[in-house]
Amino acid sequence: MKAKGQPTPIGIDLHHADWLDAVATLAPASIDLLYADLPFATGSTKRTPPNAKRAGRTVNASYADTFAGSDGFIGWLRPRLLATLPALRPTACILLHLDWRTCHHARLLLDDLLGPACFVNHLIWSYGLGGSSPRRFARKHDDILFYARTPGKHYFDPPRVPTTSNLLRGKSKKMTDVLAIASINNMARERTGYPTQKPLALLDVLVRACSPTGGTVLDPCCGSGTTLVAATLAGRKGIGIDRSAQAIAVARKRIREARPASTTGVPKRGKQPGRA
């Protein structure tokens, strides 16, 4: 069901529901980008940090991140992806955000559902904090699997970053498959207190690169709404789904406070394979 409460900006729909139930209401071939920051199957309950209220944040959220092993995780994910595929345009992109626990299982699932030819990239979000251990290399990245709905037909506008070469000072180059973007620091204004919140800078790169201006972005595990804020700022429409009423309330508030890009301020639509 659509979330109740204060109105959400035009172009953004929020659904307080389970992913599997909500996607049944989506129009066929209407989604340009599916981005899902999935549960990581950590076997624990994710909670708002205990010092969040002291930092001026009122969110006090939690969700269970437990499954019966990798089979339980894939058993949860498979029907949700299958139910979502009819809503994707032939040119749509699919981004699944995971980590080392389930990434390899999810890639095999996507190969099974879409075909190996639909694989585009295995992106690395390198955030540089945490993960230290005396028994292994430090785990300081998440994995983002990038698949096309149709092989070779997906939309893509390569993101660019400033060059580090003195010879090319002031110019830019295409970004690599390692996205070196800092995680949100504890005192950042964008931090809501919602557990596992991702930085807006990361979603801004993904939304702009993998969906056209005016297109529709779907986040079926939207949490505090970072994907939908990025969509709003980039001039895209968005659909957010979450089982938590509090997540939907936080997302709605953030989206209302975001400033949509003007028609002159959004990037031009990138070229698609086979098109001029």
Describe this structure in words.
- The chain has 276 residues and is of the alpha/beta class.
- The protein has a single domain (12-257), classed as Rossmann fold.
- It is 23% helix and 24% strand.
- The protein contains 6 helices and 12 strands.
- It has an 8-stranded mixed sheet, sandwiched between helices. It has a two-stranded antiparallel sheet with strand order 3-4.
- Helix 5 links the parallel strand 11 and strand 12 (237-242).
- The longest helix is centred in the first third of the chain and has 16 residues, at 69-84.
- The relative contact order is 0.21.
- Residues 262-276 have low confidence and may be disordered.
Secondary structure elements and their pairing?
Layout: E1 12-16, H1 19-22, E2 31-37, E3 44-47, E4 62-65, H2 69-84, E5 88-98, H3 103-114, E6 119-126, E7 141-148, E8 160-162, E9 172-174, E10 178-180, H4 200-210, E11 216-219, H5 226-233, E12 237-242, H6 245-257
Parallel strand pairs: 1-12, 2-5, 2-11, 6-10, 11-12
Antiparallel strand pairs: 3-4, 5-7, 6-7, 8-9
Helix pairs in contact: 2-3, 4-5
